[in-house]
Amino acid sequence: MIGLSSYLVLAALVFSIGLFGVLTRRNAVGILLGIELMLNAVNINLVAFARYNGDLIGLIFTLFTISITVAEVAVGLAIVIAIFRVRRTVEADRLDLLRG
Amino acid sequence: MTLETVGFWVVAVVLLASSLAVVLTPNLFHAVLYLAAALVATGVIFLLLEQPFLFAVQLLLYAGGVVTIVVFAIMLTERLVGERIRQTSRSLVNGAIVAAAVFVGIVGFLLRSPVVTLRPGLEADATVSIGRALVGPFAVTLELLGVLLVTALLGALYFARSEE
């Protein structure tokens, strides 16, 4: 029988991989992909906790996070497209207009 | 070795491999395809946790919706002819150190928590319970979620529209 901690360790691994991607990617779309992985790991945690505690709330939360993530990706990519239209680049390092 | 054990390890390997491919592959388009694989693997984990409804939602919204949007964004920002987006990464060592530190922190926290292996029995049908909860105690939240989705879509349209 697979224990709860196996799922949690797996989710932690996926979360760390996503964090690694966010920190190392130069491309704004690549950074968004890393954020997707991190949110995905959170969903695994929520469902695993809900299942092992016999609680429904975690499942509801997962539904909400999935929907909110879709909205977040839509807005984020729209911003990326808008930035690309103005600056002709989506490299996060070169988008430093607001740097003081 | 029950079916669940074998399934868990197979899915875990697939999920970790595709996640690593998402952050390491140099071609951004390939990264999105690997992300789709990782999202489907996550859906299978939901199946292993006996939540078929969430599996369907994961496939429809995540693997279907998000991946499609990202592919479109890449096509729009990548000049289709000529130079491709080279997905060079920077400071790999620093990123690996931070990610490993976070992982060690989480696992250290897990090690101090009690071990849970037994699952409570499934109630009749989780999908029915989810539906009743969504229109019962979480009705306001559900409505707010609808407002959020409309707002986000309008915002995305506003940002991405062409100037003329």
Provide a descriptive summary of the structure in words.
The complex is a heterodimer of chains A (100) and B (164). Chain A has one domain (4-88): Helix Hairpins. Chain A is 78% helix and 0% strand. Chain A has helices at 4-24, 28-53, 57-87. Chain B folds into two domains: 3-90, NADH-ubiquinone/plastoquinone oxidoreductase chain 6, subunit NuoJ (Four Helix Bundle (Hemerythrin (Met), subunit A)); 124-164. Chain B has six helices and no strands. Chain B has helices spanning 3-24, 28-48, 52-77, 92-111, 126-135, 139-160. Chain B is globular. The chains are: A mainly alpha (100), B mainly alpha (164). At the A-B interface, helix 1, helix 2 and helix 3 of A face helix 1, helix 2, helix 3, helix 4 and helix 5 of B.
Short description:
Chain A has 100 residues and is an all-alpha fold. Chain A has helices spanning 4-24, 28-53, 57-87.
Q: Name the helix and strand elements of chain B from N-terminus to C-terminus, one letter apiece.
A: HHHHHH
Indicate how many domains the architecture of chain B comprises: 2
CATH class of the largest domain in chain B: Mainly Alpha
Hey, roughly how much beta strand do the residues of chain A contain?
under 5%
CATH architecture of the largest domain in chain B: Up-down Bundle
Q: Helical proportion of chain A?
A: over 70%
Overall residue-averaged pLDDT value of chain B: 83
CATH top level of chain A is Mainly Alpha
Largest protein interface, residues of each chain = A-B, 67 and 84 residues
Helix content of chain B: over 70%
Outline of chain B, from the CA principal axes? globular
Give the mean pLDDT of chain A: 86
Largest sheet of chain B: none
Q: How large, in whole angstroms, is the Cα Rg of chain A? A: 17 Å
Distance between the termini of chain B: 63 Å
Counted beta strands of chain A: 0
Largest beta sheet of chain A, briefly?
none
Count of alpha and pi helical runs of chain B: 6
From the spread of the alpha carbons, the general shape of chain A counts as elongated
Spans where pLDDT lies below 50 across 5 or more residues of chain A = none
